[in-house]
Design brief:
By secondary structure, this protein is mostly helical. It has helices at residues 8-15, 19-47, 60-66, 79-83, 114-123, 133-145, 171-178, 181-192, and strands at residues 84-88, 98-102, 125-130, 159-164. Helix 2 packs across helix 8 (181-192).
């Protein structure tokens, strides 16, 4: 005599599920993971510790230039924060990918390329700037507002070397979410197929 044990009704139902349903469940799980990634990036910017990695604080000169608009790194007017998007990629159902980050066409309120700004902060940058008398006067005034003492007369070099330190806000989140991704995906697919209760996160 053979005795059946386990959830045979669910197993029978699962085996009779069309492949298209599996594709939709998998695609939904990937979408949910991508949305979780986007939310974690936003939370990381708000807490100033993306993926648990504390961001380097803005310099006194940077804060003076903001004129009281806040003290958080990477958040001045909020353009970069608002530009973090989740976008569905091309492909057939069940085989789609999702992009999370700053889109190439994203622009700030002043028309600056936000993807370039994001890359500069994510990886750091060094560059030279040719300084005009008006720019030099503005920098000197900002330094005085910040309580910094400008050295010299302000009539020195016509080229300044500028270094922007790394403040990664995407990579630490990706590294954090990589841990446990397989487990979360498995659970989400099971939920989307109706095999488990609602999944959190």
């Amino acid at each position: 005599m053979v005795k059946k044990i386990g959830q045979w009704n669910k197993t029978r139902s699962l085996l009779s599920t069309p492949l298209a349903t599996f594709d939709r469940a998998i695609d939904a799980a990937v979408s949910q993971e991508a949305e979780n990634f986007r939310k974690e990036v936003i939370r990381g910017l708000d807490s100033q510790a993306p993926g648990g990695k504390r961001l380097k604080k803005p310099s006194a000169l940077t804060l003076a230039g903001r004129k009281g608009r806040g003290t958080k790194a990477l958040i001045d007017r909020g353009d970069l924060r608002r530009s973090v998007k989740k976008v569905q990629g091309p492909g057939a159902p069940g085989k789609r990918g999702y992009f999370v980050g700053v889109l190439r066409q994203a622009r700030s309120r002043t028309g600056d390329s936000l993807v370039n700004i994001a890359a500069t902060h994510e990886f750091g940058a060094s560059f030279s700037v040719k300084v005009t008398p008006a720019m030099r006067a503005a920098v000197m005034a900002t330094m005085r507002e910040a309580g910094l003492t400008p050295s010299g007369s302000g009539k020195g070099a016509t080229v300044y070397a500028i270094r922007i330190p790394k403040r990664p806000f995407l990579t630490p989140v990706a590294n954090k979410l990589r841990r446990g991704a397989g487990r979360r995906m498995k659970r989400r697919i099971q939920v989307n197929l109706g095999l488990l209760g609602k999944v959190m996160g």
